[in-house]
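Homework-ish question, so no full write-ups if that breaks the rules, but can someone show me the predicted structure for this set?
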Amino acid sequence: MRTDQRKRVEVCFSPRQFELYKDSYEICVVIDVLRATSAICAGIENGVKEIIPVSTIEDAQRYKDDGYIVAAERGGEIVNGFDFGNSPYSFLDPKLKGKSVVLTTTNGTKAINIAKSIPTVVIGSLNNLDSVCKWLLSQNKNVLLLGSGWKDKFNLEDTICAGAMADQLIESRLFKAEEDSTIAAKFIYRSARENMFSFLRASSHRRRLRKLNLNEDVKYCLTPNTLTTIPILEDGKLVRLESKHEVTV
Amino acid sequence: MRTDQRKRVEVCFSPRQFELYKDSYEICVVIDVLRATSAICAGIENGVKEIIPVSTIEDAQRYKDDGYIVAAERGGEIVNGFDFGNSPYSFLDPKLKGKSVVLTTTNGTKAINIAKSIPTVVIGSLNNLDSVCKWLLSQNKNVLLLGSGWKDKFNLEDTICAGAMADQLIESRLFKAEEDSTIAAKFIYRSARENMFSFLRASSHRRRLRKLNLNEDVKYCLTPNTLTTIPILEDGKLVRLESKHEVTV
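A: Not a homework solution, just the prediction itself:
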């Protein structure tokens, strides 16, 4: 009998479950579709030099006091006194090219900081879906797809994005999945993919953003493969994954 | 505009998420399809006087030393030195009629003990699905459906059972759901219902039980509506829900 040489790809629904999953993974893809990781991907592709994810408003304020450009979001809204929130359109501003930006959000930046115990952390979204998958396929490493969830709870849009990635990797036959969460995510993605907008109509976070008139942001975040850049965490800063890892779609 | 008078029904995937969900629910249905809550439902319908759920082997041993009949399961197997594990067939033994049985299992009994902060705790399974739903519809209370998961992780079979219950309650228009976990559970159930066995072929726990030659148990646990009894937690003991709450299917 041949040994099963496939690497594992698994889905963790939220940071609260991370402790149960973190062992033995070499790469973690952090996903917060609405909107932190979509905004980070947009920013890095737009030429932002680096994005520094911080977990608390207090940390963000210290950077602001030091003269940094600081983006801060809580509960879907820009925090008073900061430059902008986590709208991807803010991160597409040409003025940010070459600059450092500090970012704190309700869920996404917290998930990034929790993921740090895994050697390599990259940022995924629907926007850079195929690029991330192509790169993962080239790595031959065990992969954890970490949804940021909503305040530690499961959420639909991150699960769909993680399910889409798991599906591509498993279909390649280079990866296998053993966790029920991965089977469920892949299944939910396959059912949602024909019409993501209608599938997510009932999702709690989409309802939250609709109330805040953020429908344009939602459209941006739910459109797959508009970007090719993969942000990677290096020394606590998110930068563009370069050279030897470079992927083209 | 009429006020929305509907009660809430939500799904919590595992005990680890319970803290995030427990507020404001008046009834908790604890679900561990493979196999603890299926066995409890079978036992109570069979005439077992009461089932005492305990979380640890040490607690179970103390009851055993006091002369109780004690069932103990860990990792799918009977714990050495105890009378039986959590096979529903063990709980159908006619010798258990009128007796007290103590039970500890890997996931289910732990979930029951965690659920105690909600005023009313009942036991659900696919076996008593319609009875539980009919009773919940008669209660006009907010309901949390708590999956026991597998060692705090999400599992498919508990989610499908919870999704089936949520679906019935929401379809009645007496209940509404707001959490993404509930939307996902309902959706997974609807896709799985035509062929539960094939859907669950890949599930991690089913694989675990198959290795242990427990396919007959799996068949029993995955067959809906073979039982009508609802076990309810009273003073730390699971007994038959009686008289004023009695339901018939």
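Now go work out the reasoning yourself. Hint: The radius of gyration of chain A is 17 Å.
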